[in-house]
Amino acid sequence: MGAPTSTGSGGDTGTDPATETDEPTGPATAPSASRRSASVRAASWSAGLTVVLVAVVLASATIGPVSLSIPVVAKAALNAVAVPTGVTLTAASVGLGGATATVPVPDLTYTYLFSFPVDGTAETIVRSIRLPRIALGVVVGVALASAGTVMQGFFRNPMADPSIVGVSSGAAVGAVATIALSLSIPFGIQGAAFAGALVTAFVVYLVATENGRTPVATLLLAGVAVQTFLGAVVSYLLLQAGESIEQALYWLMGRLHTATWSDVEVTLPVAAVCLVVVLVYTRDLNVLLLGEEDAHTLGIEVERTKRILLAVSSIATAAAVAVAGVIGFVGLVVPHMLRLVVGPDHRVLLPTSAIAGGAFLVAADTVARAGPAELPVGIVTAALGAPFFLYLLVTREVHSL
Q: What was the pLDDT predicted at 161?
């Protein structure tokens, strides 16, 4: 099987990433030189995109019914920087049907590092209203973009996105069922969405796996079938939602306006761990682009690698969808945008896509709340992402991986 072609004609593509393995194919220094080159490119692009992310965050925090200057936002944001110094347990009531129980829930305590003089009203607006929303947008964008990058490499399909194995549909069933049926469960709607997403991904994996092997095509078809079925379940639940239907629809359209620091505390560790894990597997993703047989020949434990990548991507997507609802196109369009610029090497593409995903979602959410009437952010990401993707199709910038 031949090496895959680059996805895009422009940008810093470098050499074919699938051929840059640790196998000796030339001089002894070639693999290490390739790794150094990829590391330098990844660090350079990541640093530049981090500057863009910080600029987007600061600009977003100044926009709202009350306009604030960038220095005020910067000081208030620094005053919000804290480190966890302890954990306490609080009681949470859990009920299902007529039974209720009390379970302990961990609660972190923090120590703040800065204390710049800032007007009290401005600091409250930034720290309590805008920063939690922006921080959650960054975390969710990072999770969705990194999961989308992995899924496109995993399936070798430019149309793959984080929800391709039914994760978003499973989360929707859990969340909408909790809203429509007025269920009281641990961690509420978010807990139900997260559990529904993981259960769905596991079921799809079981359906697609036979004799210890999980063909990518079968996994893709199983995901499509399960998504279709769960879509019907969601539609039925919406019919039963009654007065709660507005809340359910807002969740399905994706939203960040209810973000709190607690949401960030729960989602950030999950997204960070998942990102670190997939970064470890960037070389394996490059080799998988050659096909499973060639990857096995080059020393990759194909099935084990596929299981890990699928599980980690599903967990990252589940965590993002649980707190923000269904937000489309972030995990589909952002990896394409970065692939056109930095090339297909996942050692560079994955970290840059993650940072760009955070910036993209924060920018989209800023647009969503800047108008006379606030929109769900999922509407804005679809409105921005769909035309861009159509442009890529028309200009033939989308190719098979």
A: 87
199 CB neighbour count, 10 Å cutoff? 17
Domains and CATH numbers, the chain: 130-394 (1.10.3470.10)
Q: Read off the pTM.
A: 0.85
**Is 156:335 a contact under the CB 8 Å cutoff?**
no
Judging by DSSP bridges, how do beta strands 82-96 and 99-112 pair with one another? antiparallel
Query: How many CA within 13 A on the CB side of residue 396?
Result: 1
CB count within 10 Å of CB 90 equals: 8
Task: Give the pLDDT of residue 8.
Answer: 41
Helix axes 245-252, 216-239, angle to 10 degrees: 160
Return the DSSP state at 125: I
Span 64-101, pLDDT tens digits: 888 899 999 999 989 888 888 888 877 766 655 556 66
Residues 149, 153, 154, CA angle at the centre, nearest 5°?
A: 110
User: What's the average model confidence in pLDDT over 255-279?
Assistant: 93
Nearest C-alpha neighbor of 214 from the set 313, 310, 312: 310
CA distances from 255 to 42, 129, 194 (A): 31, 14, 16
**Reported confidence tier of residue 24, pLDDT bands at 50, 70, 90:** very low
Angstrom CA distances, 396 to 7, 384, 389, 399, stand at: 10, 19, 10, 7
